[in-house]
């Protein structure tokens, strides 16, 4: 296996003419070593029902072998071939608005037995055909899998079975979701209505969670099939992706990886794979901050608590992603700094027709060298040189940001504000930590192991089980620092709002409670506008870090801090400016004994150990040159080979990267900077 | 019966645990005396087809009896139980976009025989079961009834029958609506097409009016069933609601009662009830003006020309309705000042799951005392004390604002401007009167009795029958004052534009006519921007109160006044600033001999007589304290017991209320203030 | 035949009462000579299946005869009668969202055999009935014909047949559109999927082009039927209309003729008619620029390279079109200046009910004289006097703007920016020429004959065949001037992006190439913001007229000019301010030897010859009076009879028109002004 995988998705079957040899030659020149193929090519691999043609796969594998490249094989199941739809029209997913129209990818009913039959056959054929090939280092199962808003009869039948098993009686069901409301109570499982029109937040969220479960099971099912064929040294992965933030064009021409994926629970689904993978697309040019790369990396790394692979990221992408000189390199090292063990561009060459013709690859439509390609060559050259020292970076962050799909759904039903989503709140807290250079894990609430951390941050953890409440109380009592935002600890996992004081179960821990909340209106906090939602906190032992400033709400607290047991609990009752939030996060980190670099964004410092050596990535997200003091006793920039002593000036050019490797004796240096 | 009803909608069946006793105890403590129950609980009352279970009703009735409370029983017909939909899927209403999906309330086909069969059975069972119970003081039939956009076959068949009866021949039909246009003419009733795609404004409006008629008939049908069971001392009511102004969130989290209800004609439907009821929700906090409470009250009071009941209004409601200290009291007295005989909050306790969990009740989700509940206790205390003197307020307003559903529909088809609705124009004129403290009735055009009034205001009375035109002409001729806005007197009741000069039939009365109108563009009136629509008035005898200021339209009048017979007729050809409109309304009121208090909004004065005594509500919609001079010879504030002499300073604190009862000798005092 | 046709669409069948005689009298008084009737009256002409009633037609023809008027007969096929829809519901077009709902016009399946059967019968009956009548001067086939988004089975079957014929094998099909992408490849024609969900830009555009072809064939089919009956002296025409720019109201209350018609290819369809006709609606009042009249005229005139008829244009229209004094006249002469041989208002009288009641005619709803009618009388009077000298204006423009439906579709799939459409780019370039008084032809790319021109302008000619590329290269090489915008010369006619350097095939001609493009962001050109899209041009021989101003893109060119062969090629790589573009268009026109009047908009000068005499329309689109110097040796204003010598002041009042006829000896005068 390579130290760092470097390559691209490769689609010779989309090419206007055969240039496989030329492509391999150009890839090699760019220092690439890995291709990903086949994940959306069912109609090429099985042009007719039961007739398989792997000749184009064979062609790539042979070319890869000749060029000394590795290959990741994707199962082709996320895009249906026309013959299958013609024969079995019912395998197209039935969504809320009716059966989807064939054309785009990702519109099948993933629990339909007929779809499963055909998918299984092509997976088996493909795995059998390729697993033995020496160039194949692993398999990607399906592609950016989600549940596709499945309201088909199979999914609904499975859901009723699931409810019946979980609640046994319809009375228990009615009680859990308050189905008496608007006469929705069911008295007999046969009366359970079509879920399409469901207007009950709890039941609706329960269905969404169930659909995520079906999607996760679908991945496990695929993994088990592939496992029957693959060699032991081959990995199984999947490209987990994120909520996509759209800008408003009809066609997928802009948008980016923004936050928690609403339609698949990563933690649940990741048990299917042996190595976590991800697709991360992000703003660049003047909008490049590194935050999306960091957020995505921190989330994906925690799925398996080890290194992951960036299966897709942008080369040229959309018109607003054409990278400035230096940015492609900065992108690449940003991924490594979060623990990626390599990256593959989407894609090698721009496509000449079809939906994604302007989601551009490393090569433009002219298929010749260009500025972006030339910068990739630089990356390849450096990775060839220092890749060994960068791979298998270990990170041990002491801060966890807790995320939760159920809370995400809950805030769709019950938005804190029409202009503020769950992921907005997650990113508000995550980005504040990021900009402060407080490195963190991003952990699903079901995977949280509090004792790993010194500080836990909960953005809008609206839905929370009693177990989680107890675990967090214990965490603080035993010395941890908890930082929670408004809309945390409100409802149970069925979205039934706890019928007691809020924050539920943690009043004592936070030393405060609230009974009412309000639109902030003209309310200020520290002279600045409170926004979106304001809980009217009543301190009961807690210190009021900031009160509301308002004629009528002035008696209530906006931000509180409470010493509880051996720990501390912070609570922000409203949406503050990020600069205000950062102040409290710094206080909390100090309480937690977290050491933080002196630098702030746009200088980002990310640290870890590789092969026993301490590495510090210094990533510079700015077009303005600046100097920083070397924060380590003695360190060497792996890229330039230049060494720095503590306090020595390090010049950061526009969009610059340094990777400082500390000398052995300086291992603890990072602890001293504050 | 209580002097003033005070209470809440109560849903023990939504509670996470049994606390009926605690609830009754807290209600009593708040001075409450009335509960409304059952209006959306069909699935609880009839859990299976034909099996009835009134145990929860019985529980409430017994608890109410024990606590000395009264109960209003709502028929549960506006939310279908799942078993019924499963058995009879066709009773779900077919709307323009297809059959609605089950889940939310208010989606049944109210003319479907099967729906009627089941609705009738449950109404009979419930009425029979409860009518004899001593605590039951009345029935609410259905809930916020509308036609739900019914395009089902039953409604359409009834419509064709209705047209056939009304027009006899299709030739008459074609002529009335100009169906020749775009080849829509029908030659034979069997050719009448599905109305869903109708693009004819007249026919489309006619169908909308027909659907309103079906909804009104549905209410009458319910009332007749209930009447078979109810005692003579029990009332029948219905909670008429208003056009809901939305702010844009997907879920019903914000919006408020704005104007004329488009989907039910209140005047037509109110014959079904013995007491008018209403649901009024309104902006509060910094946005509390009292205008919605006043508009709603003035409209609902006129339905029966007597006191009405506020069956629903907000306690805590949405986050933007959390009341400031004093506001809940101000809300309550504002309702009484318009003639309400009491109010019930929606609802007692906030609900812990389901669609409306954040439409919060008097109690929050923790079900404990809170600031808002404590303010309700104050109201209860005061009403216990002075309720007798406040109940059965009689009002005799001399100004009428005429509203009309057909004109509302017409301006949807033919908007004066895409940003100006019919209700915007109604509120523009109504709010101007309101802010001037010119009290008025809000009267449906079909219910208008001109001789009751000295001044009649017609906002955009676009569609008008010849009879109405004649009645208004006579009204002015005999000494009345008519104030009309642009887009009045244009078309007949089929929306056929009258083929003669505008304003149709009233040229002479207004002393002007117009043939053309225009987008105002840069046109000014009195130096201020004319907006939305400008009719190019040609004075022919009328006085031009304000001309247009524009290079080309300068020769035309914007506002005219005409002496006609013994009266006067004002006409505003364009949308003026409210301050400009108020100037002309004041002139008109002066002409009409209407006496108006010297105060203006935010001090609102509403007057009436109760038990022969003259009462004046002084309502202060502002957070800034101010002093006013007592306008009455001698009067006593019923709340504080403090007396004032004419000219004496009355201090109004933020969101304050005074209720001045005049001494007998001062009965005519109000007449003198100007 | 009349020198100039002047009249209106006339719908006595929509009238509230019979006033044919009065109408004829008023028309005559206005100098009108032509009526258009019948184009949407199927339900009147054939009230029942197979029963025809032409009595209302006969009535109009007799009245017209008595009044000495001419009549144009429209076939009534664009609006279905109710009986036909009742009998044959499947002839309603099936669109992407399902079968349309009956009511509005233009919703039939124009390839459905049953529709064709009924349409043919009524056309034959009507043509037979009217063709012999002396007043009938021509026929309009159908009305504003388009394809209506037809996704019905007939259209789709025809499409597959068409593809099969064109590509023979599915392999060729797959290759042309890169159907391998997302597994869309078809292996066997029977597998071709329903096109509704198509997500392939090339195939989707191909279907759109096919639908346009069906609509064009439908017109040819109608024309052939009418031709069997019409007299030789009768014309066949059609009212071609334009992309409609909407402002956002639900109902068609505002919008205007903006650009290239997306749903019918005018060049393709115009072979069906013997005389081109058009519908042009445009902003007026303060927004009257004349640009829409000019653009529409320049496009329609080129269809047959001769005079055309304005079959519809606005009289009073919407509220924002109520003309200022003088504007109706200016509208009328603007049409003539572009080569129209007359115009008909839509419509004679405003309609009193139905969808278009507020798309007002020359008479308002009161059907009496009004200001606009009185201005039409002036036009009539002048045309009676000087019509002979204005008719049959010949224009020989030396500049062509090339437009293309396929490129329009392409930019829907692949927008340069979500706020910039193809027609925005067309209008950006066209309007710049217009405002410079550079007269041009607007030519479909398939009709372009380069040798007719000295300068060719291509706005976003995204899709281009090799033949066109070669023709343009030859055009420049042989001395022509080519001016192209960004997004020109990118893809072939299947939207397959050419896999080589851009601009495809013209690198050498333009002396530059580009490989990358970008969102402009903060990029400037000449100190002003570049907008929407920026191609990073690399000059290779070309002169850089303007570079990008940006830290990273500064090395690239924004505007280039290249001498190539005997000609010149300009290229604008981004969207400049119109003032910047004009500077380069002027340079290009100078290179091309085009002589341009010294005046600029708001003074527009349009020239041509009529009966051997040189005519110059001077059109003044401003409310501010101004003086210009007479640019001709000696010329006479045909309207006023006043003569001017070179340099003599001509006073232009607000919205003024002069028509200067040059004296014989001055024929070449225009050539000297620059």
Which architecture of the largest domain in chain A per CATH?
Answer: Alpha-Beta Barrel
Give the N-terminus to C-terminus distance of chain A in angstroms. Answer: 39 Å
Q: What top-tier CATH class of the largest domain in chain A fits best?
A: Alpha Beta
Number of strands of chain A: 33
By CATH, the superfamily of the largest domain in chain A comes out as: Glycosidases
Poorly predicted regions of chain A: 666-674
Overall tally of domains of chain A: 4
The chain pair forming the largest interface, with residue counts per chain, is: A-B, 51 and 61 residues
The largest sheet of chain A is:
8 strands, parallel, barrel
General form of chain A: globular
Give average pLDDT of chain A, whole number.
96
Question: Strands of the largest sheet of chain A, in order across it?
Answer: 1-2-3-6-7-10-11-12
CATH topology (fold) name of the largest domain in chain A:
TIM Barrel
Walk me through this protein's architecture.
- The structure is a homotrimer of 674-residue chains.
- By secondary structure, chain A is α/β, with parallel strands linked by helices.
- Chain A has four domains: 5-78 and 110-150 and 219-390, TIM Barrel (Alpha-Beta Barrel); 153-206, no CATH class; 399-592, Rossmann fold (3-Layer(aba) Sandwich), CATH 3.40.50.880; 603-662, Immunoglobulin-like (Sandwich).
- The first copy, chain A, contains 18 helices and 33 strands.
- In chain A, the strands form nine sheets. An eight-stranded parallel β-barrel of chain A has the order 1-2-3-6-7-10-11-12, surrounded by four helices. Chain A has a seven-stranded mixed β-sheet with strand order 14-13-15-16-25-24-23, with helices on both faces.
- The longest helix of chain A has 27 residues, at 201-227.
- Chains A and B meet through strand 18 of A and helix 2 and helix 4 of B.
């Amino acid at each position: 296996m390579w130290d760092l995988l470097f390559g691209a998705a490769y689609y010779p079957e989309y090419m206007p003419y055969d240039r496989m040899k030329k492509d391999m030659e150009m890839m090699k020149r760019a220092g690439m070593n890995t291709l990903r193929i086949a994940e959306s090519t069912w109609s090429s691999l099985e042009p007719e029902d039961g007739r398989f043609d792997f000749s184009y796969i064979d062609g790539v594998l042979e070319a890869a072998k000749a060029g000394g490249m590795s290959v990741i094989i994707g199962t082709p199941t996320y895009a249906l071939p026309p013959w299958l739809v013609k024969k079995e029209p019912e395998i197209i997913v039935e969504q809320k608005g009716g059966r989807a129209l064939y054309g785009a990818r990702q519109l099948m009913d993933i629990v339909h037995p007929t779809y499963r039959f055909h998918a299984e056959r092509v997976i088996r054929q493909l795995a059998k055909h390729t697993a033995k090939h020496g160039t194949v280092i692993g398999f990607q199962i399906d592609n950016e899998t989600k549940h596709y808003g499945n309201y088909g009869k199979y999914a609904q039948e499975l859901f009723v079975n699931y409810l019946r098993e979980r609640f046994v009686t319809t009375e228990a069901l009615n009680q859990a979701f308050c189905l008496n409301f608007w006469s929705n109570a069911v008295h007999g499982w046969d009366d359970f209505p079509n879920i399409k029109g469901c207007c009950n937040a709890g039941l609706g969220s329960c269905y969404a969670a169930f659909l995520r479960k079906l999607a996760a099971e679908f991945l496990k099912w695929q993994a088990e099939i592939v496992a029957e064929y693959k060699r032991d040294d081959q990995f199984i992965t999947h490209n987990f992706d994120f909520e996509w933030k759209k800008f408003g064009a009809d066609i997928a021409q802009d948008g980016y990886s923004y936050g928690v994926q609403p339609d698949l629970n990563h933690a649940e689904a990741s048990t299917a794979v042996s190595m976590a993978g991800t697709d991360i697309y992000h703003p660049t040019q003047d909008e490049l901050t590194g935050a999306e790369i960091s957020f995505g990396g921190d989330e994906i790394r925690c799925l398996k608590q080890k290194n992951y692979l960036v299966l897709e990221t942008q080369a040229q992408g959309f018109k607003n992603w054409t990278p400035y000189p230096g940015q492609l390199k900065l992108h690449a090292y940003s991924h490594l700094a979060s623990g990626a063990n390599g990256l593959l561009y989407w894609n090698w060459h721009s496509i000449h027709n079809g939906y994604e013709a302007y989601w551009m690859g490393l090569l433009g439509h002219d298929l010749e060298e260009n500025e972006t390609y030339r910068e990739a060559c630089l990356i390849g050259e450096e990775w060839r040189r220092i890749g060994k020292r960068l791979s298998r970076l270990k990170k041990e962050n002491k801060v966890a940001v807790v995320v939760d799909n159920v809370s995400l759904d809950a805030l769709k039903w019950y938005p804190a504000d029409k202009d503020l989503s769950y992921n907005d709140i997650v990113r508000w807290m995550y980005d504040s930590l990021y900009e402060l250079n407080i490195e963190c894990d991003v952990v699903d609430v079901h995977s949280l192991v509090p004792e790993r951390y010194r500080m836990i941050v909960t953005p809008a953890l609206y839905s929370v089980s009693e177990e989680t409440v107890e675990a967090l109380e214990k965490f603080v009592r035993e010395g941890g620092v908890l930082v929670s935002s408004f809309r945390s600890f409100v409802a149970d996992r069925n979205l039934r709002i706890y019928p007691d004081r809020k924050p539920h179960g943690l009043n004592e821990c936070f030393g405060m409670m609230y009974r009412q909340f309000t639109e902030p209106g003209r309310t200020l906090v520290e002279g600045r506008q409170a926004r979106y939602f304001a809980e009217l906190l009543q301190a009961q032992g807690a210190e009021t870090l900031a009160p509301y400033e308002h004629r009528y709400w002035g008696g209530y607290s906006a931000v509180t801090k409470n010493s509880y047991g051996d720990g501390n609990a912070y609570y922000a009752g409203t949406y503050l400016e990020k600069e205000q939030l950062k102040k409290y996060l710094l206080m909390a980190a100090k309480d937690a004994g977290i050491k933080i670099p002196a630098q702030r964004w746009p200088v980002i410092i990310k640290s870890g150990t590789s092969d026993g050596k301490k590495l510090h990535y210094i990533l510079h997200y700015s077009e303005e040159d600046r100097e920083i003091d070397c924060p380590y006793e003695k360190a060497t920039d792996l890229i330039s080979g230049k060494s720095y002593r503590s306090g020595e000036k390090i010049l950061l050019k526009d969009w610059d990267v340094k990777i400082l490797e500390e000398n052995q004796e300086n291992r603890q240096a990072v602890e001293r900077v504050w």
